[in-house]
Amino acid sequence: MKTQGQMNRIFATERVHGDRRDWHNLRGMLPYLWEFRGRAGLALACLVLAKVANVGVPLILKDIVDAFQDPAIQTLVLPVSLLLAYGLLKLSASLFNELRDVVFARVRYRAMRRLSTRVLEHLHRLSLRYHLERQSGAISRDLERGTRSVSTILNYVVFSVLPVLVEFTLVAVVLLGQYDLAFMLVTFGTVAVYFAFTFAITEWRMDYRHQMNRLDSQANTQAFDSLINYETVKYFGNESMELARYDGTLAEWERMAVASQTSMSVLNFGQGAIIAIGVTLIMSLAARGVVVGDMSIGDLVLVNALLLQLFIPLGFLGIVYRQIKYALADMDLVFKLLERGPEIRDRPGAKPLALSDGGIRFEQVDFHYQPERQILQGLDFGIEPGGKVAVVGHSGAGKSTLSRLLFRFYDVTGGRILIDGQDLRDLTQESLRAAIGIVPQDTVLFNESIYFNLAYGRPGAPREAIERAAEMAHIRDFIEGLPDRWETVVGERGLKLSGGEKQRVAIARAILKQPRILIFDEATSSLDSHTEKAIQQTLAEVAENHTTLVIAHRLSTVVDADRILVMERGRIREQGTHRELLEAGGHYAAMWELQQREGSDALESFDGTPTEDSRPV
Fold first, then answer.
1. pLDDT of residue 616
2. Contacts for 180-183 with beta carbons within 8 Å, 24 or more apart?
3. Same domain, 153 and 212
């Protein structure tokens, strides 16, 4: 645990870096505004005109009050032009403010749209390692706050900060042009002290905000994880433990939130005191001027009106500054994400895959996820064009890593992988992945209709092709037996379907994609033996004339492979056809005998027709 002194030093360092990051992030927003630079300029012009009209109102009010002091002018004959000018300026201020809002709306919301799209695009570009390590709950909350912060900053800058600065400049011109220098000095001094106090206290309060953000994301992650793992929580009866973890994090968040609110009250009181002292001094100077005859009653009214127009929005500006700082802290999460480069990139000059026969070659491939744990060691084998090679072995042997390397989710740490003689690292990732289809062991579906999930294999495919693929995967009858048929929503990650049903959707997608190279990664692991036999023939038909890599645990599914590789600890221990490996009497033969015996025992103890476990849809 860190001491409070250590935490303070950490936050002090973060503040220094945070100031630099704030300016960096603000500059990063400019490209999102450039598309509508004309609109932004027009909105700025409307803002200036609104403030000119706003400052003109007290000037007209001064003339109206002074006119009442002239004995020659009666109430009923007060110059109509002054009253009309007063009303016109009030109307103009309102009109230009609304025009500013209307003109700038598209700028603000387009910037949000562009940033949100860019973030999602960037997340898709990041490599698999990042997505395996990230926390979905935390990142969703961080991104929500980050993209919303763009709108917040633009809103406050255009509708709060710039108007105050323009109005402050106009008020300074009026005070300097018409009154004693003391008025401007007191006004400027009050504003300077106000800003210095606000900035100092707000920077101190940002420590609490950063901790609140961290704890908020952590609590969201815990809640998200517990709901994703709902069944696991129920299996072990750990509802109270999950609630305790969540509530413990929220208790820390509550402590930070209370401290933040307390410090904000100190800030609000200090700001109010500074404005009260400044207004009192200026009004005292104005009253003294009226007494000695240097100023009229109209001047007193003008000074009071100008101060109200200046200090009232200035009071809100303190809140605005705090909100901008909070938004900048939220935005920093997004810009840091955008600055994170993908681990796997296309090389300069990378070319599309020139696919001909689809032959695959692993040449002395080494690979590790972490340097201290080697996964593949000197792996060397090939798959002939149109051939079928199976890889078997115990869990942890490195089988599934082969498919990740073929898709180039990772780059090999030694050796190389070739398709038709082309090193994968010299190819564009898009063209490489377009040529490969996979039926993964763990199929995760979108929370959309089953038709959408099937069509995902080849967007734009005709309905007949999609239905034919479903039929070949032996899932069409199941779909048409559902109440909503093809429009049945499968639930988050496809949880309304059983493992076997999801796997058949994956098989249908691979059929629909029609790739030259196929990977079956435990493609029938979730199917019962009856359905598996029906699917095996389909897979054999699909794989015909395709270069196929089969990763399997169940040896009965690979007996027809041209060659079987037996892997152990990242190396090929045995290889050959099914018959050759059995005759060799080695590791494969022992695995085959064990699985055959387990299958016989299961059949003897089984009573009834095999059926597949299905979830209610």
1. 43
2. 180/285, 180/289, 180/294, 182/285, 183/282, 183/285, 183/286, 183/303
3. yes
